[in-house]
């Protein structure tokens, strides 16, 4: 889990094929090294299953590695994502909550397929499963990939924009914990909670600055500022508020392989001083 002595290119949010990325955990780490990163975190959606493979590969390459997870949460009925770094992955409450979130992801797939069929785009659960491979965290991206494979849409972006995004004609709600409860859960497990892309996809109205301040009071330590979905003015305001409140500021690619072609590894990075704070908070 260790990092290089002077890390300089640090990407703290990536996904492998264990959730909705397209690279294996080992392949992702090798790609991170090839991209010139000195530290990479693996933060698959609602599962830790890829961490051991990624950590072994990183150690063999001399690449700094941070174990993490991205939890699917909600606030006032809107999707919010929470990154959790380090911590006790045997904590029974955390294990149980991640399992409940994954079950909620899978349970809505039949209803989504029914809606897509009504829209003239029939898919089978087997087609979705074929896109999910061995992931325990099946979800909308795999439905999107099945739509692409059938030729209904050109790519994931079109699938989400036209059908699968919140409010879309094929969207189906699912279980997700309240983000405040999730922050407390992550802290209780000894992990470090960081809000992922808080103002991505026009979600500034969901997590305005005062709510981010309340999340800090609940135990969150900071949020992603430098993210491809954040506009320059969003980054300015998020950074200023973080600095004023002593919050951690991170930057990352949110890499998904070919699942998000506009998010190459290292396109956004975390400053070394902020990474040092994160490692200290993790107890390293």
Word description of this protein:
- With 284 residues, this protein is α/β, with parallel strands linked by helices.
- It has two domains: 10-91 and 182-281, TIM Barrel, CATH 3.20.20; 109-164, Orthogonal Bundle (DNA polymerase, domain 1), CATH 1.10.150.650.
- The protein has eleven helices and seven strands.
- Strands 1-2-3-4-5-6-7 form a seven-stranded mixed sheet.
- Helix 1 (25-34) packs parallel to helix 2 (51-61), helix 5 packs across helix 6 (140-150) and helix 6 (140-150) packs across helix 7.
- The longest helix has 16 residues, at 92-107.
- The protein starts with 9 loop residues before the first strand and ends with a helix.
Please summarize what this structure is.
With 284 residues, this protein is α/β, with parallel strands linked by helices. It has 11 helices and 7 strands.
């Amino acid at each position: 889990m260790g990092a290089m002595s002077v890390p300089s290119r640090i990407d703290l949010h990536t996904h492998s094929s264990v959730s909705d990325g397209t690279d294996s955990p080992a392949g992702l780490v090798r790609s991170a090294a090839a991209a010139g990163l000195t530290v990479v975190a693996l933060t698959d959606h609602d599962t830790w299953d890829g961490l051991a493979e990624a950590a072994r590969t990183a150690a063999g390459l001399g690449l700094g590695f941070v174990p993490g997870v991205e939890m699917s949460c909600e606030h006032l009925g809107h999707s919010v994502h929470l990154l959790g770094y380090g911590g006790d992955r045997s904590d029974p409450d955390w294990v149980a909550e991640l399992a409940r979130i994954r079950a909620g992801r899978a349970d809505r797939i039949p209803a989504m397929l029914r809606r897509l069929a009504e829209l003239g785009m029939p898919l089978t659960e087997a087609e979705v499963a074929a896109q999910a491979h061995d992931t325990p965290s099946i979800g909308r991206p795999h439905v999107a990939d099945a739509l692409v494979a059938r030729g209904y849409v050109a790519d994931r972006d079109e699938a989400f924009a036209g059908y699968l995004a919140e409010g879309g004609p094929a969207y189906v709600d699912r279980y997700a914990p309240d983000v405040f409860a999730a922050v407390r859960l992550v802290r209780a497990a000894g992990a470090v909670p960081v809000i992922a892309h808080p103002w991505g996809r026009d979600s500034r109205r969901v997590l305005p600055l005062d709510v981010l301040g309340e999340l800090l009071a609940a135990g969150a330590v900071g949020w992603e500022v430098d993210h491809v979905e954040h506009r320059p003015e969003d980054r300015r305001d998020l950074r200023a508020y973080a600095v004023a409140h002593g919050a951690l500021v991170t930057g990352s690619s949110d890499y998904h392989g070919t699942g998000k072609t506009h998010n190459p590894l290292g396109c956004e990075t975390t400053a070394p001083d902020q990474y040092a704070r994160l490692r200290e908070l993790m107890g390293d």
